[in-house]
Write a structure and sequence with these properties.
Blueprint lengths: L2 H14 L4 E3 L3 H22 L9 H18 L11 H17 L43 E3 L3 H16 L4 H15 L3 E2 L5 H18 L5 H9 L17 H14 L9
Antiparallel strand pairs: 1-2, 2-3
Helix pairs in contact: 1-5, 1-7, 2-6, 5-6, 6-7
């Protein structure tokens, strides 16, 4: 059972138990409307807020990892097949390497800061437009009458389960937090028509939030590929990752998307 199926099944069970909504003139409804306004205001403030600082020790950890990687790369031979195989030749190679290292300055070479808007080959990426995650409940939401979705233990449990599922699916913590904030702000206090299928409304709200998330980011994939292809040279996309993280599946999806956009695709492994 997939993420959406589990989420919808849990929502349907709660809807059947009438644990989601309250009557519009009740105290619970008024509390839900107040909470909705507070959530919306918090979301607006978060849009202009600066990004949070990295956790303590992050910069030190980052430098250590980069130094370890640099040391590893420096130890790699330019051509592993050209290395001496007999003992005498290996000793000569070690002495030659020691002499070369002694001639090298001890001062570390300053590296320019990495530009996140450039690929690993130095090509410029096309920036994306800033997209805010918005959840539109569509025609299910009404201005008057109906029932109001209230903050409840059941809703909190469902959203917590969803948050856990998203994190276990390797979605980034920041992205998950944005999705959950958008869902809470859009659902709590929402006024739905009495004929609206609440489970379907909640399921669709999640889908729209995730689609908005996919459209956000700091560079635009389609526009970047288009700019590279305009140079009349092949565009290479390399997938890197450990086993079982979805490289093959993602590669197939990217290839399909490129074909839909009119590009010819060649896959190599």
């Amino acid at each position: 059972m997939g993420l959406f199926d589990r989420f919808k099944k849990r929502a349907e069970k709660a809807v059947d138990e009438e644990e989601f909504t309250v009557e519009e003139d009740s105290i619970e409804a008024e509390e839900a409307l107040i909470q909705r306004r507070q959530l919306m205001e918090a979301m607006e403030r978060a849009k202009d807020a600066p990004p949070p600082p990295p956790p303590p020790g992050f910069e030190t950890f980052k430098e250590e990892v980069e130094e370890q990687w640099d040391d590893f790369v420096e130890e790699l031979p330019d051509d592993p097949f050209s290395q001496p195989v007999d003992k005498k030749s290996r000793k000569k190679a070690v002495r030659a390497a020691s002499v070369a290292a002694a001639k090298t300055s001890d001062e570390p070479e300053e590296k320019p800061p990495h530009d996140r808007m450039r690929s690993t080959t130095g090509r410029a990426l096309v920036a994306t437009d800033k997209v805010a995650i918005k959840v539109d409940l569509g025609e299910s939401e009404v201005k008057r009458g109906g029932r109001i979705i209230a903050s409840s233990k059941v809703l909190d449990e469902i959203l917590e389960e969803l948050e856990t599922d998203l994190l276990m699916a390797d979605m980034g913590h920041t992205a998950v937090e944005e999705v959950m904030t958008a869902l809470r702000g859009s659902l709590i206090g929402a006024r739905l028509g009495r004929k609206a299928e609440l489970a379907d409304v909640i399921d669709e709200a999640l889908r729209k939030a995730l689609l908005d998330l996919l459209e956000s980011g700091y560079w635009d994939f389609d526009k970047t590929v288009k700019s590279f292809a305009a140079e009349a040279t092949p565009v290479s996309i390399m997938m890197v990752g450990v086993n079982g993280t979805g490289k093959t599946t993602t590669t197939a999806k990217i290839a399909h998307r490129l074909q839909q956009n009119g590009y010819s695709v060649v896959l190599a492994a």
